[in-house]
Specification:
- InterPro entries: DUF445.
- Among the domains are: about 5-75 and about 375-415; about 160-290, no CATH class.
- By secondary structure, it is mainly alpha-helical.
- The protein has 19 helices and no strands.
- The chain has helices spanning about 5-25, 30-60, 70-75, 75-90, 95-105, 105-120, 120-135, 140-160, 160-175, 175-195, 195-210, 220-230, 230-250, 255-275, 275-290, 295-315, 320-335, 340-375, 375-415.
- Helix 2 runs antiparallel to helix 19, helix 5 packs antiparallel against helix 18 and helix 9 packs antiparallel against helix 14.
Amino acid sequence: MAKPKQTKKAAAWSLVVMGAGFAASLPFQGVPVGKLLVGSFEAGLVGGLADWFAVTALFRHPLGIPIPHTALLPKNRDKMTEGLVSAVENNLLNKDSITEKIADFKAAETVLDTLTRELHNDGIKIMIDTLCKRILAGLPLEQIAPLVAREIKSQAGAFDLGPILERAAHQMTERGYDAKALDYGLKQAEEWLVKPETIMFLGESGMKAISGIQMNGLMQFAMNAFLGYMNEERLGGILQGYLFDRVEDMKREGSALRYKVLDMVRTQTVRLAMSEAMQDGINSWKNNMLEGWNAEETVLNKLTELRDKALAAMEDGHYVDTYALPAIERVLVDLRADHELMTSMNAKIVDGVTTLLEKNHSKIGKLVRENVDKMDNATLVSMIEDKVGQDLQWIRINGAVTGFVIGIALTALQMALA
């Protein structure tokens, strides 16, 4: 496509050619061919000049002479601006056409497709990494900690430890903890029995117990005789041997005494766990512990510790490829598969854009008017002439050529009639 300046030169040359042809053919107008050429170039010159005047009159005064009804664009600048604004607002960018186009545009799908396509771009990864770190570092832990602490206390306070006690009692039997506890107790008893001081302790305790027994007659005489024969060491040794035998018996699997002790332990444990007083007591202990616990400080310290550890783990940015991107991709796939949600999102976008358009549609024309008003007449004329001047210059060329052809026809007709 020819450039505007080249087309303007071609239009000027068309006038030069017509004028030169007219001048060159004047001496030969006495002959038929000369007369035909004079008439043709004359008509072409008149047509080219007329079109040059018409084209020039649109933008400026021809030859600088203020001829009436010339320089039409500068003189009618306000009308032209209003017409341009009206065309943009009511024809090119009217609200109905924009709304109709927006309604057919699947904005949600386009956004998701773009995100999916660009997700693994290095720039997007850096943006995700920066955003995640800033969000985590900027969390208002001082405001979050009281909420978390209050919820923990509320949940813990409403939690009944009674069923846990009952379950723990049954679990102790099912997992053999009662037998292990008994074996541990027997081991401690055995270690205590073999100590030298244990004999004297048992003997002294036994002698005191026997001495306190009051009997009558022969039985008292026999008791006194027994006490005269027995001392603390002898009695302690007897009791030590007896207790040691019982301990060894209970350590043996299949022992009747061991079975009785375990059965008693299990029964008492379950009974204690199901005791209303025991359950109320442990729940009261729990509530007292909660009241005295500075939960906010503990939660804040723990949240701060977790945040610092998370930021340290995120330092190298590997988590973006390992965790963040797969999670985002799953979310995007789930969103895309939810047709009802996508329809709702599109409707929301269309409604939002339409509302925004209705509120700001007049600003489109205002923007056009402001941009036009910023230009002086020379700049505005130059811009328009640059955009449409090429076609207007072709009018001049066509006028000269058409005049030349019509001149040939009219001159030939005149010659034929003569």
